[in-house]
Amino acid sequence: MTAARRGFEPAWMIAILVVGLLAPWILPDYLADLALLWLMVLLALTWDINGGQMGYNSFGNIFFFGLGVYACAVFQREADLGYLTELLLGMGLGGLVAMAAAAVLGPALLGMRGHYFSIATLGIAFAAADVFSGWEYVGAASGLSTPLYPGDIQTRSRFFYFILFALAVLTFLVLRWLYSRRFGLIINAIRDDEDKAEAMGIRTTRYKVLAWCVAALFLGLAGGPVANLIGFIDPRDLAFAGDTYGVWMIFMAILGGRGTLWGPVVGAVIFHVTQQVFWIYLLGWQRVAMGLMIVLIVVFFPRGILGRWTGRKGTRLEGGTQ
């Protein structure tokens, strides 16, 4: 990064913070959509840890989001501590459960490379959806309602907007810090040539699992507030929604420029705004339009928007060592 770009980045960060803080009063009628925009930013950033920075394409990161959704909701249902306390503790529990799952599954799954890893993660997400769809304790296929927010609708929307905004900003800042440290250099080395990284004495499996745990932590934290914002948990349409959130997080990172810090942010904003426009003006054809958009981006912008703008080479689409 050149000195000019390093000086320009803080200005962008400050501008985004100001806009994010003022948005609930500037666009009060679109609070739910704006809250989901910050979720999209978080989803894209967390996927890019493994898929862009490390070159391991996971098709099952939605699994960690789903664990966070259910961990928080069940804790809120069973606890009697007041809404805010239950939500915050439930979010923390969701993050810990998701991170623990990544730590347990990581050594086995991340021992695979290429398409084998991608397919294995996809299988975990599908299996989780089936398990939770048949588990009566969490509502099975009938779903699970979250506790009612103790306030009016406008206050409720603003409350969850700021939670998701704070989580997205926190995710960005933590990743910005991690990528500037030895951690960032090592996961980039794994992406470029894992065998050489191992030959140099780097314990690649340890760092691969750590990277997956970081992604899982933030995905798990986000599950609770999203479920409470929507008010109802469906195991396939929300918690383990692989055909929507699971696919979107990958596409947003590719759209903006995978393997970059700002790329997933740019991709998430463009994707979410475009999606809303399609839903308004192309109702009934919005999925067709989104599919065509994905094809066009992959064909004409394989390096993503930032990759094309900066001339940076993108990583290839298969998982594992590049």
Which structural class matches the secondary elements? mainly alpha
DSSP summary, beta strand count? 2
Low-pLDDT residue spans: 313-322
Mean pLDDT reading:
88
Outline type: globular
In this structure, how is the largest beta sheet organized? 2 strands, antiparallel
User: Helix-strand pattern, N to C?
Assistant: HHHHHEHHHEHHHHH
Strand order of the largest sheet: 1-2
How much beta, percentage-wise? under 5%
Number of helices: 13
Query: What's the end-to-end separation, in Å?
Result: 23 Å
* Gyration radius from CA atoms, angstroms: 19 Å
Helix content: over 70%
Protein traits:
13 helices, mainly alpha, two-stranded antiparallel ribbon, 322 residues, globular
Describe the structure.
This protein has 322 residues and is mostly helical. It has a domain of 210 residues. Helix content is 76%, strand content 1%. The protein is built from 13 helices and two strands, in the order H-H-H-H-H-E-H-H-H-E-H-H-H-H-H. It has a two-stranded antiparallel sheet with strand order 1-2. Helix 2 runs parallel beside helix 7. The chain is globular. The relative contact order is 0.18. The C terminus is likely disordered.
